[in-house]
Amino acid sequence: MRAQLLANQRIGLTLGPAEVDIRGETATVRFSALATGGSGRLLPEQGGAWEVTTGWRAEDGQWRLYHARWDRR
């Protein structure tokens, strides 16, 4: 465990392009996410790639997140 923590002291997250679909007072945003550790290597167990879908609602002039789902790629 200690070796993994030392090898991955810098954890990064790279997001892919977002696809935004706005319909009135709600919006859906889809994007990919890639977690990396150390010098760009994938984290062995915690890292990887996901497809993320989020749901947003307009409330009091601000967009608020009300739903999020992520699926491992």
Order of helices and strands: HEEEEE
Poorly predicted ranges: none
Overall structural class, as computed from helix and strand content, comes to mainly beta
* Largest sheet entry: 5 strands, antiparallel
Quickly count the helices: 1
The mean pLDDT is 84
For the secondary structure, the number of strands is 5
Percent helix among the residues? under 10%
What gyration radius follows from the Cα positions, in whole Å?
Answer: 16 Å
Distance between the termini: 25 Å
What is the percentage of strand-forming residues? Answer: over 45%
| Overall morphology | elongated
What brief labels describe this structure?
73 residues; 5-stranded antiparallel β-sheet; 1 helix
Written description of the protein model:
The protein is mainly beta and 73 residues long. It contains 1 helix and 5 strands. The chain has one helix spanning 2-7; strands spanning 11-15, 19-23, 26-37, 48-59, 62-72. Strands 1, 2, 3, 4 and 5 form a 5-stranded antiparallel sheet that branches. The chain starts with a helix and ends with a strand.
